[in-house]
Amino acid sequence: MTITSNIYVMPLTSSNHINVALNLVYFTVTLCCSLFFNFYAASCPTAELIVRNSVSSSSSSDPSIPGKLLRLVFHDCFVEGCDASLMLLGNNTEQSDPANRSIGGFSVIESAKRVLEFLCPGTVSCADIIALAARDAVALTGGPMIQIPTGRRDGMVSVASNVRPNILDTSFTMDQMINRFSNKGLSLFDLVILSGAHTIGTAHCSSFRDRFQQDSKGKLTLIDKSLDSSYANELMKECPLSASPSVLVNNDPETSMVFDNQYYRNLVINKGLFQSDSALLSDNRTRRLVEDLAKDQQFFFQSWGQSFLKLTTIGVKTGDEGEIRSFCASTNA
């Protein structure tokens, strides 16, 4: 069975995205499988509220939580689909891959799951909790609150070797990013919009160290000329060669705790933290869209809802597929 959702879509090929946003094309998108809006209305009516409260309370004590939850949903959905495979613990699971060792937010998902298992045992999947928590993280930090369908089931396979061929690296070229997104059914438009997730969150120094090199005196120097020199100097101060691997910097140097369009405003003045960020401005296929998003936050918010919906329905398991785990860190078997 399928469901349909009436949403607005802005064509990427327009020469003026701001004007297009005012004359949106209204059409129907068919979502895969058996996802439904308000899926738990009868079986667990407080499910979404419980997830939202878990995100809110955790974020109150740790402001980094929203960024962690947003990163979590990306890393989960790009490997095995949105099925909470990233939550599974064990030898050689997805969490074992170095790219996932810095992923956080698991405790928020587990906290919500414990409450839901008490109130509605065997009903709400960990996969749905991850998608809802990321949705709520955006709204909590000032972004749009959007409705997403639920009914995902939890996967039973989690293998470390599946991680690298599927996720993105911060050093990727535009063509590499397009290829990975295309493989997930996501467009060039989705690539630019979903990159806006970097408007919140933090990054380890190693994730952008390739933009610098060590000179003959043992100091870092800038080699990536697409990066603003003053911003580069700030980054070198925050991340010297002697910096601990645990040192973090904000993805967005201006409004790091607010989900807004500052990310795109940073890009147009060459202050994108990652090489993959800067590629969005330097590539003629995406530059105009970046510039339009930098000028119009409402356009970004409307577009975010569309692309986030697509992200959170990648490879979902429904019906008889997968299971509803009792604990997110292990299968029921």
Structure description:
The longest helix has 15 residues, at 47-61. 39% of the residues lie in helices and 8% in strands. With 333 residues, the protein is mostly helical. A two-stranded antiparallel ribbon has the order 1-2. It has a two-stranded antiparallel sheet with strand order 3-6. The chain has a two-stranded antiparallel sheet with strand order 4-5. It has 2 domains: 3-196 and 305-311, Peroxidase, domain 1 (Orthogonal Bundle), CATH 1.10.520; 197-304, Peroxidase, domain 2 (Orthogonal Bundle), CATH 1.10.420. Residues 1-32 have low confidence and may be disordered. The two termini are 28 Å apart. Helix 3 crosses helix 5 (126-140) and helix 7 (188-194) crosses helix 12. The protein has helices at 17-22, 47-61, 65-77, 106-119, 126-140, 174-183, 188-194, 229-238, 262-268, 275-282, 287-295, 297-311, and strands at 3-9, 25-31, 202-204, 212-214, 220-222, 248-250.
Layout of SSEs?
Blueprint: E1 3-9, H1 17-22, E2 25-31, H2 47-61, H3 65-77, H4 106-119, H5 126-140, H6 174-183, H7 188-194, E3 202-204, E4 212-214, E5 220-222, H8 229-238, E6 248-250, H9 262-268, H10 275-282, H11 287-295, H12 297-311
Antiparallel strand pairs: 1-2, 3-6, 4-5
Helix pairs in contact: 2-4, 2-5, 3-5, 4-5, 7-12, 9-11
